[in-house]
Design goal:
This protein is α/β, with parallel strands linked by helices. The chain folds into two domains: 2-134 and 270-286, 3-Layer(aba) Sandwich (Rossmann fold), CATH 3.40.50; 149-267, Glycosyl transferase family 10, C-terminal domain (Rossmann fold), CATH 3.40.50.11660. Helices cover 43% and strands 17% of the residues. The chain has 13 helices and eleven strands. Helix 1 crosses helix 13 (270-286), helix 2 (33-40) crosses helix 3 and helix 3 (43-57) packs parallel to helix 4. It is elongated, with a radius of gyration of 20 Å.
Length: 290
């Protein structure tokens, strides 16, 4: 099957491994829509160029990964040749705007990594799905190195994250991607996670690298994991401090939870993400028209 994946493809983008997962059984073409706009010097010219590419390769499935600052013209063109998927991995932030909602309506189906945007979109479109972004099995794996950090957080220090991180004296890895992300997890006895309307791929990447995860809860956590068996949650700063102290002094229990989380999380690879996308495509293709 011919698939066109439209998104950003820089060194840190998850679109690389997501498109690679689709590419293992299909003919996937990648279109770096942001870079192409820079090359052409105009987003309208980029949209016209993308329409020409779509008309040339005639994809049976086109995946639009967020694609902010892009009109619906490429979506309309892709709909002439096959099905279209809007993939949105962010929280319900400034990127979740009227332009994105227009694409949600225009695409054949829409998939979301987080509960918040999914819940909103499901109110305006029937063909809406919640799919974990998952982890890259080629990169996110345990690294055999000694622990030298008690508590860490991998990610940007936005919102109330900074208050939490500083209050518990956690180490912040602000620029750890790919192999370096797995190294950071493996160096840390406790890996923190903060959620915003759902959990990002950090949860799956930490568990895939064998890390012990101490996380804020999210609405569908019980649909995916068993708390205190696969990971541990905290509710507020006092609870976070208490659980950090407990698990830093109970090594065996912490290691057992990390191992159980690692084993259970194997189902959440990027290949599973691709399988979910293709299953939805097949289901919609086989539904009777009218």
């Amino acid at each position: 099957m011919i698939i066109l994946f439209v998104g950003v493809f820089n060194d840190t983008s998850t679109n690389n491994s997501l498109s690679d997962s689709l590419d293992r059984t299909n003919d996937v073409h990648r279109y770096n829509y942001r870079q192409r706009a820079e090359d052409l010097g105009d987003i309208s010219k980029r949209d016209n160029d993308l329409c020409s590419v779509i008309n040339l390769i005639k994809p049976q499935l086109t995946v639009f990964a967020k694609c902010n600052n892009m009109s619906c013209a490429p979506v309309d063109e892709a709909n002439k040749h096959g099905l279209t998927c809007l993939w949105y991995m962010d929280p319900q932030n400034d990127n979740y705007n009227d332009e994105l909602i227009e694409k949600i309506h225009a695409c054949s189906f829409a998939c979301f990594a987080l509960d918040g945007p999914y819940n909103h979109a499901s109110q305006i479109k029937d063909q809406t799905y919640l799919i974990p972004e998952g982890f890259d099995s080629l990169i996110d794996r345990p690294i055999s190195i000694p622990w030298d950090i008690d508590v860490s957080f991998i990610g940007d220090m936005r919102g109330d994250r900074e208050d939490y991180v500083r209050s518990v004296n956690a180490h912040n890895f602000n620029n750890a991607y790919g192999h370096e992300h797995a190294v950071a997890v493996s160096r840390s006895k406790i890996n923190l996670n903060f959620t915003q309307g759902g959990t990002s791929d950090r949860t799956y990447k930490v568990l895939a690298a064998g890390g012990f995860l101490l996380t804020q809860p999210w609405p569908t956590i019980d649909d995916q994991f068993i708390v205190h068996r696969h990971l541990v949650t905290f509710d507020g700063l006092h609870d976070l401090r208490k659980k950090i102290l407990y698990y830093l002094t109970h090594d065996e229990e912490r290691k057992q939870i990390a191992h159980a989380g690692y084993e259970h999380n194997k189902m959440n690879s990027r290949m599973a993400w691709a399988t979910n996308i293709l299953d939805i495509y097949t289901d919609l293709r086989t539904q009777p028209s009218g």
